[in-house]
Amino acid sequence: MRIVIMGAGEVGSHLAKMLRNEVGDIVVIDDRPERIASLSSYIDVETICGNPSSVQVLKEADVAAADLFIAVYPRAAQEINIVGAILAKQLGAKKVIARISDEDYLSPENKLIFKEMGIDLMFYPERIAADEIVDFLKHNSTAESMEFARGRLQIAVYKLNEDSPMLDLRLDEFIKTIPAEDLKEFRVIAINRDGKTIIPNLDSKFRFGDLVFTITKREGIEALNAYFGKSNIDIKSVFILGGGPIAQMLATSLDKDGMKVKLVDKDRSRCVELSEKLSSSIDIVHGDGRNSDFLYEEGIQQYDVFVALTDSDESNVLSSVVAKKFGVARTVAEIENLEYIRIAEEMGIDSVINKKLITASRIFRFTLSDKARFVKYMAGTNTEVVEYIVAPGAAITKAPLKDLKFPANAIIGGVIRSSESYIAVGDTKIEPYDRVAIFALPESIKEIDKFFK
Predict the structure, then answer these.
(1) Domains of the chain
(2) What is the bridge-based pairing of β-strands 25-30 and 2-6?
(3) Most CB atoms within 10 A, among 16, 85, 237, 358?
(4) Residue among 281, 290, 326, 285 at smallest CA distance from 308
(5) Phi-psi region at 242: left, alpha or beta (left = phi > 0; alpha = psi -120 to 50)
(6) pLDDT classification of 162: cutoffs 50, 70, 90
(7) What does the DSSP assignment read for 306-361?
(8) What confidence tens digit (pLDDT) does each residue in 348-372 have?
(9) What per-residue confidence (pLDDT) applies to 345?
(10) SS3 at position 15
(11) Is the model's pLDDT at 21 over the cut of 70?
(12) Contact 379, 360 (CB under 8 A)
């Protein structure tokens, strides 16, 4: 597979690094020599320094032979990405993707226009990030969650604190405490510990600080919360620090849901702009959220959730820690430096949002077979969740799971068949047109993909 990436900024560079492990032929285009030099210093991919929307430069990158063209030119008008994507498609690229920064472009009628112009996917990471925060607030007993088939199957991630009833139990000991009828409702599929992901066996022991990944049927989520000593809280108020695009979209969504919302930003002109754009029921305050006295004076201790969305990872982490100390029940922080994610989780932040991982999730699906419907990178881990639709005659249908040589670094968690959902076990036999949820380490993905072709 040949992939051409337009833009060597943070997102483009991260995609090149990630996809380099999966795809042998990658070209990155950018017109800034310093960005090209930075990329080349830590990853071995072909680079071209030139105008990314130039037909000549695109021909030099041989986009005509590209299986996938990704337009993620950094910090520029979205038109550059759109023009580059359209030109690449006209020059022969099989699939093209463009990052945008205008939510109006995602309306059904506008998406159809761009589809007819040749763009296969447009994505707006900030919109997706705002939606992920809203999803977390609905499932706030977990550190992260993901739904399949409108919630009939769910992946829920639990952090083990010092009061967790599961501490120091082996997986087999934990299973023995669960009634047989509940065991049909959920399954432990992975443990993340010290930045490493473990596919557990019966002897695996739960430890303080572990992130435990589970898959559950909708009917099993309440029981699962109870076994982990967790519970959802009823969220009625949210304090947002930062006034960027994510914050603006999040505030709008929460306000429509009837929540009390306060938004704080240190830029006075941005506060004025937001006050003109947002509902009058949203409290917009000018101030420095790095000042804990200011936060207290603004009543942060009275809010159910604190969401830190400034352009500084450090400020987001520290202000979230302060919010916890003031008694805020749930905290969310935007963390763009991947190395900070584990630190943030260790400091007690309940949920982490990262636009690079969001972007990678949307794009990585295009490198797999057309049977892969969805990919999500789980924050704080090196793991991926993939949903497949099973094709008739696919290798995965040939025998029960226990008799297939499925990759050791992957696990099939659940199956959706018609309107029913099942937790997968060794005797489960996958059938054509099933929707299958898989949890896997990156090195297994290409091998897994072969089972579904």
Answers:
(1) 2-123 (3.40.50.720), 234-328 (3.40.50.720), 365-450 (3.30.70.1450)
(2) parallel
(3) 85
(4) 290
(5) left
(6) confident
(7) EEE-SS-HHHHHHHHHHHHHTT-SEEEEE--SGGGHHHHHHTT-SEEE-HHHHHHH
(8) 898 899 888 888 777 877 776 666 7
(9) 81
(10) helix
(11) no
(12) no
Phi and psi, residue 363, nearest 5°: -90, -35
Q: What is the DSSP letter of 378?
A: P
**Strands 144-148 vs 153-159: parallel, antiparallel or unpaired:** antiparallel
- List the 372-377 sheet strands across, edge first: 372-377, 384-389, 435-440, 410-417, 420-423
Residue pair 399/429 in contact (Cβ under 8 Å)? The answer is: yes
Nearest-angstrom CA–CA distance, 27 and 16: 8
Q: What is the mean pLDDT of residues 5-14?
A: 89
Distance separating alpha carbons of residues 186 and 188, to the nearest angstrom: 7
Determine contact, residues 61/53, Cβ cutoff 8 Å: no
SS (H, E, C) 253-281: HHHHCCCEEEEEECCHHHHHHHHHHCCCC
How far apart, in whole angstroms, are the C-alpha atoms of residue 408 and residue 383? 13
Structure tokens at 388: 């497949």
Distance in angstroms (rounded) separating the CA atoms of residues 59 and 65: 10
Instruction: Give the CA dihedral 371, 374, 376, 382, nearest 10 degrees.
Output: 0
In the block, residue with structure tokens 């949210």: 238
pLDDT average, residue stretch 291-312: 96
φ, ψ dihedrals at 244, nearest 5°? -75, -170
Transcribe 81-121 into DSSP letters.
HHHHHHHHHHHT-SEEEEE---GGGGSHHHHHHHHHTT--E
Residues contacting residue 37 through CB under 8 Å, at least 6 positions apart: none
What type of residue is 96? V
Whether residue 384 contacts residue 378, with contact meaning beta carbons closer than 8 Å, is answered with: yes
The closest alpha carbon to 374, from 392, 362, 383, belongs to 362
Report which DSSP code applies to 433.
Answer: T
3-state secondary structure of 32: coil
CB of 193 closer than 8 Å to CB of 109: no
**What's the pTM?**
0.81
Closest to 29 measured CA to CA, from 66, 423, 425: 66
Maximum CA extent, the chain: 66
Q: Using CA of residue 253, residue 256, residue 262, residue 263, what is the dihedral sign?
A: positive
Q: Take residue 40 and report the two structure tokens written for it.
A: 């080349």
Residue 76 reports pLDDT greater than 70: no
